[in-house]
């Protein structure tokens, strides 16, 4: 209970914009002034918070303001995407201290990729100047589905040869850090709650626009992972009943109508993209998709029609999830999001409202991520901070 109360107080300070006094903390979290004082002293001794001046203009003694100490602890984050792998060093307030990005190595040899990741992490930490002893761990965001218990990826799309690769243990052995592995969509949702500002509060879904499309789920400020850690797999929601056949047996699923690989194929079939690609690697899809978006930005009507049709389909999928969960916000982000943002933010809000069962009760806000393009890697690092410092009901469970 003591550890849980500590995380509750730390989380309250983290969520405040200008810091909180001990009196304000007692009012917010409902703990006694003595408990607040004792826990504050522990957090100060651990360098997780600092006393940041005094405030007060009325009668009585000015109150000492407590804020997070950005340098109190750090976390490493890696986002493994079939096209590009992103790395960050994150401080306690969710600010990026150091960042790098490399093209994801090709081929079907995961061990070579893991070695490359480990080398890049070592260089990143050295360049950041952060004391290794202050690094709480390493988070890895990977395409789903995943086996959360064993830290493995399970047949991820566009990563042939990666089925049942034990990423957690392999990366821990290669780097020497404690490693957490989670789905990229869940990691993105965690990033939004930790570093997204207003868009990361309350109840929302994070629509992850990457090589694949999925959603992270946050209800009442808590990230929902599901029984096996694979909540948010929306690839088989039907968004076009007359669409192409999916490998699940249905027609018009998200997986076969909305993802970048499908949009590129539509553009090639329409003749607006050269169809002479040598393969379907993540990097090749990303390059062709970027060209499609360039054409749309230049006003090419066929390219615009493909992007706009995808917005309609994605909005239908998002509506299924928002109606099921009754959330207040849809946050879009991910490595492919920035190229879609302008058209999607123009089209999706009205489409989502039209499909909303609660539109007469409350609106559904539609926004882009408050974290930025590196939301996957920042989310991976945030996994470490969340695991270490965020209040979770599981902390109240006694060990058997």
Short synopsis of the structure:
With 400 residues, the protein is an alpha/beta fold.
Report on the structure:
By secondary structure, the protein is an alpha/beta fold. The chain folds into three domains: 1-68, Arc Repressor Mutant, subunit A; 74-190 and 376-396, ATPase, nucleotide binding domain (Nucleotidyltransferase, domain 5, 2-Layer Sandwich); 198-369, ATPase, nucleotide binding domain (Nucleotidyltransferase, domain 5, 2-Layer Sandwich), CATH 3.30.420.40. It contains twelve helices and 16 strands. The protein has helices at residues 2-15, 22-29, 33-45, 110-128, 167-175, 184-195, 254-257, 260-269, 282-297, 301-325, 337-355, 375-389, and strands at 20-21, 49-55, 63-68, 74-80, 84-90, 96-103, 135-142, 146-147, 152-153, 165-166, 179-183, 204-209, 213-219, 222-224, 329-333, 365-368. The strands form four sheets. It has a five-stranded mixed sheet with strand order 6-5-4-7-11, sandwiched between helices. It has a five-stranded mixed sheet with strand order 14-13-12-15-16, with helices on both faces. A three-stranded antiparallel sheet has the order 1-3-2. Helix 1 crosses helix 3 (33-45), helix 8 crosses helix 9 and helix 9 packs across helix 10. The chain is globular, with a radius of gyration of 22 Å. It comes from Pseudarthrobacter phenanthrenivorans (strain DSM 18606 / JCM 16027 / LMG 23796 / Sphe3).
